Structure formats: C-alpha cells, structure tokens
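Deliverable D5.2: sample structural annotation.
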Amino acid sequence: RQVLDQAYVTYERLFGDLTVLAGLRLEDEHLDLTQTTLGAEAQRDNLRSSPSLHLAYKLTDAQQVSASYSRRVQRPSPDDLNPFAIQTDPTDLRAGNLNLKPQQTDSFELGYQYRKGQTSYLATFYYRIANDEFTPVTRDLGGGVSVTRPENLGSSRSGGVELVANGRLASSVKYSLSTNTFWKEVEADNLGFAGARAALGVSGN
C-alpha cells in the first residue's frame, strides 16, 4: 500500500525580456510493504521537496537563451520491492529489494534557441547529479546458483551537450538533425567497487 500526499505551487513573472518561472512541490510518501510468503514487512515515510526554477531571456524575436534547475524523484515499481525470488532458469534467480529507496536527480541546463519560419536551431548543455540510482546486482548463492536484485547505487554525475537543427532545403525537402555528446561517472563504493568509473558517448540522428 502506497499513499502519496502532494502539494505544489508555481509562480511566473516577466521582467522586461526576462521570464522567471519558479515552482515547489512537497510530497509525503507512506509505504506499507508485506510479503506474505516470506513473512517480511517494512514501513517507510518520506517527506521530500522538489524545487524548480526556469529563466528565459529574449535576445531578439528569433533568439532566446535559457537556464533551468529541477529535481525529480523516480520510485521503484512493486516488482522491484518484492523480495520473493523467482527462478528465471535453473541457475538464475531474480528478486526485488524490500529496502529499495527512490532515486533522486538534480538537473541543471543552459540552452540557446533560434527559430525563424521553418528553421530552428537548439543547443542544450546539461549536468545531472543522481543519488540512490537503481542498478541490478548479481550475487553468488553457491552451487552455481546466483540471484539478481536491484540495489541503490551510491551516486552518479553526468553531463553533455545536445544539438538539434531543423529546416527546409527546398520546397519539398526538409531536414532534421540531432546529436548528443554525453559523459557519465558512477560512484559504486557501497557495492564493493573501488573508486569511480566513467564513460563518454556520442549519439545522433
């Protein structure tokens, strides 16, 4: 049983060419968990605040720059919380985690936008800090049997730049291009891995 009490407020105001939009969400979560087969029970109460702030400044009729901050919470699914192990094949089990906590992510963004007619260009620089991330962890139970269940990863940091271009080459030809260059660093000391691991990636369409 999960009960969520939520309240939120937003405020928007113009200061000449600057638009300010601020928000605050308060959320109280009460969770009662009972796994009848295993006789396992848990209760959890969490009060969280999620602020947000978005700034947009109009440079010209076609150009705008923006900056924003937001916090979001991702909750585990019921299957992720169910500790009863299910056999996926003769040597592998999969189970949930009764103590799995929600994941919290703080996101910072800077953006530039150009729009004129059917042509638009967008550049977004972003940086995100995540705590209590979900990750599957496999442990050896002996006898060639292992169990995989989700755990709260220590933390991670990620950032990158996303570029998007849309327009028309001719009366019957349109184009749409996008690319995302991103970096992520994971701290997993609580899972037995010393130090951080990082990766860099590029994607495009």
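Annotation notes: The two ends are 43 Å apart (CA to CA). The chain is about 0% helix and 75% strand.
The annotation will be released with the project's public dataset once the embargo ends.
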